[in-house]
Design brief:
The chain is mainly beta and about 450 residues long. It contains 4 helices and 32 strands.
């Protein structure tokens, strides 16, 4: 999600040219790292006027959604994101400008930029702080309908799969504003959608907080993830004041860990329309003012080393180089190929494969069944799917389009880390094959996690 704020007097500003309204001068260099932390990323946007961003540091997310992801960025927003310097540019005064524009046909374009790096994380025993100094779009009233600027971070695992694993991989909304309100919102998105432990799609939020003057001047917005104590915390800051805190002990361990204990990438964007503005009056309309930007002075990420930094992911089982024994346990995360899934920490140790929904699959090469035949297979599965959500776990040989040789149906087991071993009949298999585990459901929601698979004689 994202936010944006407005002040009185926007009607007068609308009549002034964009160049006159938005010629501002950056007032701050990137601050030194807080005590005990180091700067691991920063950009002060000191490029020449009218130039784009350094693409070695930033990527432009363009179009109306990630490849393979939800339409309209999954939020219902109406703009098309571009990499044009009409929408995204450095102003020559030390600022990044993200400007939504409406053309003569009523179509909106805007900008969404993301850090190339996806590894901004708090090590065990340490902290990470993500901070920006920015001015929200200076527009209010009817002219602000539909404006939705944001500064936020998304779990790194979202990028390879078009964020189809949202919200489980975590989203930290650091600054959002909608419809030119004199306010700011903060949120944590996590768990499952809809509903779940994090009340999706709303998320766990600060609620609307007053943010006087945030559209007429620069203010500093930050989030800090603190792992220096057993009760880890996410803390949100406005101009250095901690105004919202959420703690690990307020969620189950799996949901918290999946939403926090990994790398993130940083996003800046101005959306137009969508579910969040609609919840506060809707928009955009014919009265919405085109060309009012969010202006960003700097972005910085700070990190402390803390204790011993754990590996990015828990110990895993890589695919073997030779054949697999069908009658030994095949760890789910040791797949040779897969689609639509995510590897995550498992409560039983190591990793499991999660966020599995209709049409997803895993591929295991060179599985040797020998010559004696197979009685059945057993899979270690867990599900926290909602009421009415279920599906089939199927085993196929040599092609995902071949008929299954065995399957079983699964509804909820009581939680995404509540594991059960469930068998499915198989017969008549000999020799060495490529094994596909496929997943079929009549609903689009995730319905199963898989820890391991084993065939039995």
């Amino acid at each position: 999600m994202r936010f944006r704020v407005v002040a009185a007097g926007a009607a007068a500003a609308v009549a002034v040219s964009a160049s006159a309204i938005f010629a501002v001068t950056a007032e701050a260099a990137v601050p030194a790292a807080p005590s005990g932390m180091t700067t691991v990323f920063s950009d002060d946007f000191t490029g020449a006027a009218g130039t784009g961003l350094n693409r070695s540091n930033w990527l432009y997310a363009t179009g109306t959604g990630y490849p393979g992801g939800a339409a309209n960025w999954g939020t219902g927003e109406v703009e098309t994101m571009t990499d044009s310097t009409a929408n995204v540019y450095q102003d020559g005064n030390g600022n990044l400008v993200i400007k939504p524009l409406r053309d003569s046909a009523g179509r909106w374009t805007s900008g969404r930029v993301e850090t190339q790096r996806t590894d901004f994380a708090a090590p065990a025993g340490g902290k990470v702080r993500i901070e920006a100094r920015l001015q929200q779009p200076n527009v209010s009233g009817a002219a602000a309908a539909g404006y939705w600027p944001a500064f936020w971070a998304l779990g790194g695992a979202a990028r390879p799969v078009g964020a189809t694993n949202w919200p489980g991989i975590g989203e930290w909304d650091i600054m959002e504003n909608i419809n030119g309100r004199e306010s700011v919102f903060a949120a944590l998105h996590c768990g499952t959608n809809p509903g779940g432990p994090c009340n999706e799609t709303t998320g766990i939020t600060s609620g609307e907080r007053a943010c006087s003057g945030c559209k007429t001047g620069f203010h500093t917005y930050a989030i800090e993830y603190d792992r220096t104590t057993a009760d880890e915390q996410l803390r949100w800051y406005l101009d250095g004041n901690n105004y919202f805190t959420f703690s690990k002990n307020q969620l189950d361990a799996t949901t918290w860990n999946n939403a926090t204990q990994h790398g993130f990438f940083v996003i800046l964007n101005v959306a137009m329309g969508g579910g969040f503005p609609a919840a506060f009056g809707g928009g955009p309309t014919a009265s919405t003012q085109s060309g009012v930007p969010m202006i960003v002075d700097y972005v910085a990420v700070y990190q402390s080393s803390g204790g011993t930094t754990p590996p990015t992911t828990p110990p895993t089982t890589p695919p073997p180089s030779g054949t697999r024994d069908a009658f030994s346990r095949i760890e789910a995360e040791s797949y040779n190929a897969a689609s639509g899934v995510q590897v995550e920490a498992c409560s039983e140790g190591g990793q499991d494969v999660g966020y599995i929904a209709n049409g997803d699959w895993l591929q295991f090469d060179n599985v040797n069944f020998g010559s004696g035949g197979v009685r059945d297979f057993v899979a270690r599965v867990a599900s926290g799917a909602g009421s009415g959500v279920s599906g089939l776990v199927e085993v196929r040989l040599d092609s995902r389009t071949n008929a299954p040789i065995g399957s079983f149906a699964l509804g909820t087991t009581g939680g995404w880390q509540t594991w059960q071993s469930i068998p499915g009949n198989v017969s008549g298999v000999t020799g060495t094959h490529t094994v596909y585990v496929t997943f079929t459901s009549g609903q689009p929601a995730d319905f199963v996690n898989l820890n391991w698979l084993q065939f039995r004689k």
